[in-house]
Amino acid sequence: MANLIVTGGAGFIGANFVHHWRAVSPDDSIVVLDILTYAGNPANLDGLDGVELVVGDICDTDLVSTLIADHAVDTIIHFAAESHVDRSITGPDAFVTTNVIGTHSLLKAAKTAWLDKGSGKPHRFHHVSTDEVYGSLGPDDAAFSETTAYSPNSPYSASKAGSDHLVRAYHHTFGLETTTSNCSNNYGPFQFPEKLIPLFMLNALSGRPLPIYGDGMNVRDWLHVEDHCQGIERILRKGRIGETYNVGGGQELPNIQVIEEICRGIDAKFSADPELAKRFPDAPAAQGRQTAELKTYVEDRKGHDRRYAIDERKIRTELNYEPARDFQQGFAETLDWYLNREDWWQPLITKAKLAA
């Protein structure tokens, strides 16, 4: 039996991980530490028994230390992060505070509890990072591996690179038992509707434009969040201490192809289910038109990386990890989830409109 702190566990990937871990390890103790910014949502944890939500800041080292002591925590899975690149361009300070200073706060608390005062028992600090720390690839460049030099191009990716280096330093300098995973673009249930897939699905349902940066040919590797959680589980159970593992979905696609799949998927759903036209009358598909009519090309984002791709041979060969879904299957599951969970996302849309 393990005692876990999951930081950012009320956010997108963190909440999916908590659901996953509760299913595979039902006897473990889980404390979710989340400050509940705009992207943190207690409703993401609905239906979970034996999960304690603590509303607090990872920068509060004393709070983290208290939680570790009070709950005899031996495992920290660190998801908490500011992660939206557009927001990092307009407001980078929050990214440095949360992603760098917050990670350092957690590392200090873990070192004090497990090494300075600890009994020497096994422990784990797992840090969840991004492929964006590696920079941008050309069309013919080899995919990112764990040995690719860091070359972050946005305040977001620079702050995550800083946190990665701190985790590495605490392992090599102090002996903290750490692992790190760098993942590709996640999608799936509970994703806050600022990222491409949920944003475009919900825009399409309400008849709003689908804004495509530049020529739409920026390439990303797409990873369903449940497959990502499976990968993290493998690292926690079998990963080598001090190692980094890249977790990808093996689905390298240009943004425009993802957008076209969204449009096709929504059109097909409306064609098959007339009730959707009643629920979402502003959608072009409700009026017999094609969702693709909403596509709108806009000025490219500043410093927009052209291509990401993950070389995941290390986690495949060492830990026998393989994603279970291709993009077509994963997106179909995601679209069904959002169509069936208007109760989850509609309050977020309403709140955003009231705040605007």
How do the strands and helices of this protein lay out in sequence?
Blueprint: E1 3-7, H1 12-24, E2 29-34, E3 51-55, H2 61-70, E4 75-78, H3 85-90, H4 93-116, E5 124-130, H5 155-174, E6 178-183, E7 185-187, H6 196-206, E8 210-213, E9 219-224, H7 225-238, E10 244-247, E11 252-254, H8 255-272, H9 275-279, E12 295-298, H10 313-319, H11 327-340, H12 342-355
Parallel strand pairs: 1-2, 1-4, 2-3, 4-5, 5-6, 6-10, 7-9, 8-12
Antiparallel strand pairs: 9-11
Describe the structure.
This protein has 356 residues and is of the alpha/beta class. Helix 4 packs parallel to helix 5 and helix 8 (255-272) packs across helix 11 (327-340). It has a domain at 3-188 and 222-250 and 308-326: Rossmann fold (3-Layer(aba) Sandwich). It contains twelve helices and twelve strands. It has helices at residues 12-24, 61-70, 85-90, 93-116, 155-174, 196-206, 225-238, 255-272, 275-279, 313-319, 327-340, 342-355, and strands spanning 3-7, 29-34, 51-55, 75-78, 124-130, 178-183, 185-187, 210-213, 219-224, 244-247, 252-254, 295-298. The strands form three sheets. A seven-stranded parallel beta sheet has the order 3-2-1-4-5-6-10, sandwiched between helices. Belongs to the NAD(P)-dependent epimerase/dehydratase family. dTDP-glucose dehydratase subfamily. Its cofactor is NAD(+). GO terms for molecular function: dTDP-glucose 4,6-dehydratase activity.
Side-by-side strand order of the widest sheet? 3-2-1-4-5-6-10
What is the chain-wise order of helices and strands? EHEEHEHHEHEEHEEHEEHHEHHH
Instruction: State the fourth-level CATH superfamily of the domain at 3-188 and 222-250 and 308-326.
Output: NAD(P)-binding Rossmann-like Domain
Query: How would the global form be characterised?
Result: globular
Name of the CATH architecture of the domain at 3-188 and 222-250 and 308-326:
3-Layer(aba) Sandwich
Instruction: Estimate what percentage of residues fall within beta strands.
Output: 15-25%
Instruction: Report, as a whole number of angstroms, the end-to-end distance.
Output: 46 Å
Average pLDDT for all residues:
95
Structural class: alpha/beta
Summarize the biggest pleated sheet: 7 strands, parallel
**Alpha-carbon Rg, integer:** 20 Å
**Count of helical regions:** 12
Uncertain regions spanning at least 5 consecutive residues = none
GO molecular function: dTDP-glucose 4,6-dehydratase activity
Protein name: dTDP-glucose 4,6-dehydratase
Keywords: Lyase, NAD
Family: Belongs to the NAD(P)-dependent epimerase/dehydratase family. dTDP-glucose dehydratase subfamily.
